[in-house]
Design brief:
By secondary structure, the protein is of the alpha/beta class. The chain is built from nine helices and eleven strands.
Length: 238
């Protein structure tokens, strides 16, 4: 995976991610924060090279090139790790195609106390560079499974005792009335069409966020945030 920028590379080091190669803008070596990070990487045996501004233009994917870019191994997550809590709160992003949205969902899942995330179906890669930047490092710590087969992801959650909660823009119970106690898996649908009707129909619970007209739906990451934090409120009592 590609780690772009000082923040992500620093977060990767702190998370114990295996970093294979680092490229640093030559002029940035005099910056204290960058110099200290490079020193830590070199002491860990990571290959670090300096490059000109024009080379950084090529290797950094953002419009204003970052001062440091790294290639690293993806964190590995086993199914056992995802369900190793007594009452897991699993967030499943189903067919969420915008990598920025996927990254934001990962970030709010970690911040709100969710135990893991599943990127299911045609979901954007949570370890792609845009999603990683959106997660601000959360994808390097939160257990994440990538499962192209949505039905298998749901079946696995059920097999581990999770209630399946499907988000739907209308017709479900209010997000504030649903009981989030016990093992639970919340399905967040894609931009536009949302969850496939068959998934909504097959879910144990259907949840809807109250919205005043004429608003019809909310951003996928906002939906995830409201549900995760309501679950947090109920589970912690505050």
């Amino acid at each position: 995976m590609l780690l772009d920028g000082v923040h992500l590379v620093t977060e990767a080091v702190a998370a114990g991610v295996d970093i294979r190669h680092v490229t640093v803008k030559s002029e940035a070596m005099s910056i204290t924060e960058v110099g200290a990070l490079v020193d830590k990487l070199e002491r860990a045996g990571v290959c670090v090279v300096t490059a000109s501004a024009s080379v950084m233009d090529a290797v950094s994917p953002v419009r204003s090139p970052s001062t440091i870019v790294a290639l690293a191994d993806r964190p590995s997550t086993s199914e056992t790790k995802v369900f190793d809590r007594a009452a897991p709160l699993l967030v499943a992003a189903v067919d969420v195609q915008d990598p920025g949205n996927v990254g934001a969902i990962v970030r709010v899942a970690e911040a709100g106390g969710a135990t893991a995330l599943v990127a299911a179906g045609a979901c954007a890669d949570p370890f792609g560079w845009k999603a990683l930047r959106g997660s601000m490092g959360s994808a390097l710590r939160l257990p994440i499974l990538v499962m192209p087969d949505v039905n298998r992801a749901v079946d696995d959650a059920r097999r581990h005792g999770c209630r399946i909660v499907a988000t739907t823009p209308r017709g479900g119970r209010s997000v504030f009335d649903l009981d989030y106690a016990g093992p639970i898996a919340v399905l967040i649908g894609s931009e536009g069409p949302g969850l496939p009707p068959a998934l909504v129909e097959d879910a144990d619970e259907r949840v809807t966020i109250p919205m005043d007209a004429p608003v019809e739906s909310l951003n996928a990451a906002v939906t995830a945030a409201l549900i995760v934090y309501e679950a947090r409120r109920q589970r912690t009592g505050h």
